[in-house]
Write a structure and sequence with these properties.
Number of helices: 19
Distance between the termini: 119 Å
Family: Belongs to the transpeptidase family.
Shape: elongated
Number of strands: 27
InterPro entries: Beta-lactam/transpept (IPR050515), Beta-lactam/transpept-like (IPR012338), MecA_N (IPR007887), PBP_dimer (IPR005311), PBP_dimer_sf (IPR036138), PCN-bd_Tpept (IPR001460)
Keywords: Cell cycle, Cell division, Membrane, Signal
Structural class: alpha+beta
Strand content: 25-35%
Main location: membrane
Largest sheet: 5 strands, mixed
Subcellular location: Membrane
Helix content: 25-40%
Length: 654
């Protein structure tokens, strides 16, 4: 007869817990069952939903020894363990059904974090559950549920490494911005004898630098910074290019308390080099970080304005991210443990390749260097429309007058109206057209600069001498839309895609007879930018319109199509007249400039006072077409033409 023994008692971990699992399953929106038939999956799903929401009240929780854990404590520990990732809880996905061995169930869960920059970090973890005598499945909580390498008190932390910022390249593929020598000007507090006088002397010296620093050096907070700094500290004031520093070195070098450090930082060839077009690269500002907290942190370099701002994400690349484990040290301060859980290597930025030519840009910047008024020079290569230079004179650092100005073109627009008249057969080179002292249309009187008159002269003379009254008289021959049609054939008003903002013009059309007369010589409602006029001038020189090009990589997606071929006989006559502007007309100051220069001067009234005028010159030499604009420049012969001469003389031989 077999012997029988009493069945030994097997304690169940879950029986030591008196917690009840809530009936609400947050993740799936169904009830958590209270019977063993429901299986552990419902408790798992409720736990995952509570992990994400931070509310674990509906979940039974025990430690590995079976002791009951308050749900609020576990929720708090999950948040603490998540550390810098706590604000973006992971996506949690149960993989398949739990595996049950006696009273213990094990399920695999995918944990997927979304890190800054939409970086995905995913891994699998095991969640264990214990089945109690009350038919409830309770989650066995321990820090390694979050990650296998985490222990109590640990924190997840992010380490961020910036990628190498790419350059903006010139037309030869060379970086426009490279490390260049600078002098960091600073103050050592214990060397200062008279702080108020030092600030005054530094301010005067900085304001004496030419061309003027834009923006200027703000010294308003320097006294406070010097006062609060350590006695032997170097309180930096400004970093100056070597050439700017040399200008004022005699004035600041021996000032008590000043200190100087030689360094190199990434800079364009000169301080004014295409500055509005290129923009700047600066340490991240508070508003950058506030607007894009997921993109920038303190210490990042950020593009502001121009191409650097527009293409900042491309140029800056992607930062490297490393998830590390931190642990409290003595005093409670968190310190890295050296454990890395995830790494994404920094991604270098992608360069921008432009059509800018360093020599031509330097010539354009140099031509404006002595100009005190807002002004611009734009230069294009005629053969392919490449933008070789975009220079801006004094004004806010980010103001790209060269591309964005919306101003009347004045008599430079006689180039456009003459093309329209030639196309219609309304004029010929030598056909006589009366140049009167005044000409009245619908009660509005038009006159010439300095009230000159020529009488009945060949049309080519009217053009070369820039006779307004002759053009006002010819306006009816263009018809209501003839001027606009001629302008559009030269690319004005077009939908250009340069990869940056640009105003392509707005040509007067229709309107009263007086408006048509004014529009014929660039007044009325017609508005242009220097870039638009440079493009139109290049079209005349080339024989058809070709949209100006600035970026070759990335190439613009939708450049304007090339225009139709202009009438050869019309452009031949127009070119002849534009050459005579230089040889015998209003641009004769350029006749001794080397090479054959073609052009047209222009003054443009910008309000109701005839004495208030902008100044223009447009033209070309060889393969370079250009436009010069001077706001409130008065007579073009006194402002725009001299700038054109400086530009042309500085151009390298073609």
């Amino acid at each position: 007869m077999p012997l029988s023994y009493p069945r030994p008692h097997r304690p169940n971990l879950a029986r030591r817990v008196a917690a009840a699992v809530s009936t609400t399953l947050l993740a799936a929106g169904v009830l958590v069952g209270c019977s063993a038939d429901d299986g552990p999956q419902r408790s798992v799903d409720a736990f995952l939903a509570g992990w994400r929401s931070g509310d674990l009240q509906s979940v039974g929780l025990i430690d590995p020894l079976g002791s009951k854990l308050p749900s609020a404590d576990v929720a708090r520990e999950i948040k603490d363990l998540s550390g810098e990732l706590a604000a973006t809880p992971p996506t949690l996905t149960r993989r398949g059904e739990p595996k049950i061995t006696k009273d213990i169930a094990t399920t695999t869960v995918q944990v997927e974090w979304t890190l800054p920059g939409q970086t995905r970090w995913a891994y699998d973890r095991e969640v264990r559950l214990a089945h109690g005598g009350d038919d409830q499945w309770q989650v066995i909580w321990e820090p390694k549920v979050v990650h296998e390498q985490l222990a109590k008190g640990d924190r997840l932390a992010l380490r961020r490494d910036a990628g190498a910022r790419a350059g903006v390249l010139d037309n030869a593929g060379k970086p426009l911005v490279t490390p260049r020598p600078v002098v960091r000007v600073g103050v050592q507090p214990n060397g200062v004898t008279d702080l108020k006088k030092l600030v005054k002397d530094l301010d005067a010296a900085f304001k004496a630098i030419r061309p003027a620093l834009v923006p200027g050096v703000d010294l308003a907070d320097l006294p406070e910074r010097v006062t609060k700094a350590e006695p032997g500290a170097f309180v930096e004031v400004v970093s100056l290019r070597e050439e700017a520093y040399r200008q004022i070195k005699p004035r600041i070098y021996d000032l008590p308390g000043t200190k100087f450090v030689s360094d190199k930082i990434d800079l364009a060839p000169t301080r004014e080099f295409a500055r509005a077009l290129l923009g700047s690269v600066d340490p991240a500002q508070a508003d950058d970080i506030a607007a894009h907290p997921d993109r920038y942190v303190v210490g990042d370099l950020v593009g502001h304005g121009g191409l650097q701002g527009r293409y900042d994400e491309r140029l800056r690349g992607g930062p490297g991210l490393t998830v590390v484990v931190e642990r409290p040290a003595e005093g409670g301060k968190l310190e890295p443990t050296g454990t890395e859980l995830f790494r994404r290597e920094p991604q270098p930025g992608q360069a921008l390749k432009t059509t800018l030519d360093v020599a031509v840009q330097n010539a354009a910047d140099g031509a404006l260097r002595a100009e005190s008024r807002r002004s611009a020079v734009v230069a294009l290569r005629i053969s392919d429309g490449a933008v070789l230079a975009a220079a801006n004179g004094p004004g806010p650092a980010g103001e790209n007058l060269a591309f964005d100005a919306q101003v009347p073109p004045g008599s430079t627009f006689k180039m456009v109206s003459t093309l329209g008249l030639l196309d219609r057969g309304a004029v010929t080179l030598d056909g006589p057209v009366d140049c009167k002292k005044t000409f009245t249309v619908d009660g509005r009187s038009f006159k010439n600069s300095d009230n000159f008159e020529l009488g009945s002269v060949p049309f080519r003379t009217d053009f070369a001498k820039s006779c307004n009254t002759a053009f006002a008289a010819l306006a009816p021959k263009l018809g209501g839309d003839g001027l606009a049609a001629a302008g559009r054939s030269l690319g004005l008003e077009g939908q250009w895609d340069l990869g940056t903002d640009a105003f392509t013009g707005k040509v007067s059309t229709g309107g009263s007879l007086a408006e048509q007369a004014a529009a014929s010589f660039g007044q009325g409602t017609t508005l242009v930018s220097p870039l638009a006029m440079a493009g139109a001038t290049a079209a005349v020189a080339r024989g058809r319109f070709e949209q100006p090009k600035l970026l070759t990589d990335p190439a613009p997606a939708k450049p304007a199509p090339a225009g139709e071929q202009l009438k050869p006989e019309s452009v031949a006559a127009l070119r002849t007249m534009m050459r005579e502007v230089v040889t015998t007309g209003t641009g004769s100051a350029l006749k001794d400039v080397p090479g054959e220069v073609y052009g047209k001067t222009g003054t443009a009234e910008y309000d109701d006072n005839p004495a208030h005028t902008h100044a223009w010159f447009v033209g070309w030499r060889g393969d370079v077409a250009f436009a010069v604009f001077v706001e409130k420049g008065g007579a073009s012969t006194a402002s725009a033409v001299p700038i054109a001469e400086r530009f042309l003389r500085a151009l390298p031989p073609s």
